[in-house]
Amino acid sequence: MAYEGVDFYNIDELLTDEEVAIRDAVRGWVEDRVIPIIEEHAQAGTFPKHLAKEMGEMGLLGANLEGYGCPGLNNVSYGLICQELERGDSGIRSFASVQGSLVMFPIHAYGSEEQKNKWLPRLAAGEAIGCFGLTEPDHGSNPGGMITKAEDKGDHYLLNGAKMWITNGTLADVAVVWAKLDGKVHGFLVERGMEGFSAPEMKGKYSLRASVTSELVFDNVKLPKENLLPGTVGLGLKGPLSCLNNARYGIAWGALGAAQACFDSAKNYALERDQFGAPIARFQLVQNKLAWMLREITKGQLLAWRLGRMKDAGTMKHQQVSLAKMNNVDIAIQIARVARDIHGANGILGEYPIMRHAMNLESVFTYEGTHDIHNLVLGQWITGIQAFQ
Ligand code: TGC
Ligand code: FAD
Questions:
Q1: Same-domain pairing of 367 and 288
Q2: pLDDT over 80 at 177, yes or no
Q3: Does ligand 2 have an atom closer than 6 angstroms to the CB of 373?
Q4: Range of the domain at 167
Q5: How does residue 2 score in pLDDT terms, banded at 50, 70 and 90?
Q6: Ligand nearest to the CA of 369
Q7: What is the 3-state secondary structure (H, E, C) of 55-97?
Q8: Which residues are catalytic?
Q9: pLDDT of residue 164
Q10: Domain holding 114: CATH number?
Q11: Based on the domain organization, do 45 and 173 belong to the same domain?
């Protein structure tokens, strides 16, 4: 039977026909093109790069952006896309999040007409790949402390520094790099092949194994003046943070996809696995675990749906994104752990998606603002007191 998702509260009734059609199309694509191959890629530690163009053809890259070859869908549709992609694997959703929310969004919002025309159509089609370099080895949660810097040399900028933990880095044709110019954070486009720029892949990950993670090294990179994102002048840290709001929004939906995959597998396993003469699904303790998963997924879905409608209405606050990102990733990671328990020893095998999702979610818990950074964002909103420092 085709996968039908979890919809205990008839949330489909809150979606338009178009939103349901987009969700179902992506769900079918993930079922046919991602799920059959993703475990092999995760075991091998490789990203299935051939899927980039397919995602482009499906309109999944920069889905909520208008013009320049982008589909111009609403934000609920974008969220549903993230949910379905992450049901396949967080690495596939990460690819689309970075490309759409962290690379195409800043070029769209802050780029010159030339930059938009040069990059957006190719990025939307999956013909070019992008990455977003904010985090540095010594500045993760505190990106404002970054030391990567650009110096104005008259006819060009000279870029020096390093970024770490950069999704898609080694694959990227263009990197949106955040660096200080005259002490203020600005965005720059660094292109593959520029002298002094390298992007070695980081190996040895136990998490997001089907995603490429890299360092970015800038050793006296001469950047043409036209590679500064002009709209980032004067924004400071708000430039990169505005991109993160979009990506964090997608993650709030995406984590529900991983959670639903784990719930679905746990439910099926509990019904099929016999112990003490009958399926383990008959035990109250197992039913309690499944009921808890359904409860948390349903609450998370309502949160994501409401956030999406507010984003479409232009009323969404970044603190509301923080709450949804931290909540939905937190419940997803807990659901993955409980699902692993229900699968017993089989839960550690790649034959089931559980362990892969559980390991992926460890990264999702940390990236795009750690769980506790979002706690502090909410703490500041509640009390008016900034507790980061
Ligand atoms: P702070 O002084 O609090 O803020 C500076 C100014 O920015 C405003 N602001 C925001 N604006 C828009 N959106 C947001 N989310 C904002 N958060 C804050 C703030 O109001 C202030 O404005 P103003 O007018 O008063 O100047 O800055 P801070 O340096 O104390 O840091 C704040 C903090 C800790 C919340 C921020 O730095 C943060 O979010 N840290 C976490 C870093 C992070 O999330 N990194 C993510 C890197 S990218 C990534 O992980 C990609 S994973 C990709 C994948 O594979 O999916
Ligand atoms: P730290 O900031 O060192 O935090 C370590 C611990 O200290 C955490 O528990 C944190 O919550 C806690 N902590 C820190 N500050 C405080 C505080 N003030 N109060 C209380 N607790 C605190 N970055 C990019 O720029 N681009 C990418 O594409 C990208 N992709 C990634 C892909 C993967 C697989 C991973 C794992 C990370 C990626 N990142 C990316 C980096 C990610 O955003 C950072 O890892 C994250 O922001 C946390 O930074 P950190 O790892 O340096 O942890």
A1: yes
A2: yes
A3: yes
A4: 130-232
A5: confident
A6: 1
A7: HHHHCCCCCCCEECCEECCCHHHHHHHHHHHHHHCHHHHHHHH
A8: 368
A9: 98
A10: 1.10.540.10
A11: no
For residue 211, the ligand 2 atom closest to its alpha carbon is: 34
1-5, 145-149, 201-205: which range is least confident on average?
Answer: 1-5
Q: Give the contacts of 69 (CB within 8 A, at least 6 positions apart).
A: 120, 121, 124, 125
- 251 with 357, same domain? yes
Q: Which ligand is nearest to the CA of 165?
A: 2
Same domain (yes/no): 243, 294: yes
Ligand 2 centre distance from Cα of residue 356 (Å): 21
Helix axes 17-29, 75-88, angle to 10 degrees: 20
DSSP H/E element including 275:
strand 274-275
Average pLDDT, the chain: 98
228 with 242, same domain: the answer is no
In this predicted structure, what is the pLDDT of residue 1? Answer: 62
pLDDT digits (tens, 9 = 90+) for 268-294: 999 999 999 999 999 999 999 999 999
User: If you average pLDDT over residues 108-129, what whole number do you get?
Assistant: 98
Whether 388 is in a domain gets the answer no
Closest CA relative to residue 163, chosen from 187, 179, 151, 174: 179
Residues 316 and 256 in one domain: yes
Q: CA 125 to CA 13: how far, in whole Å?
A: 31
* Structural domain count of the chain: 3
Assess if residue 278 is contained within a domain.
yes
Kindly state whether residues 268 and 219 are assigned to the same domain. Answer: no
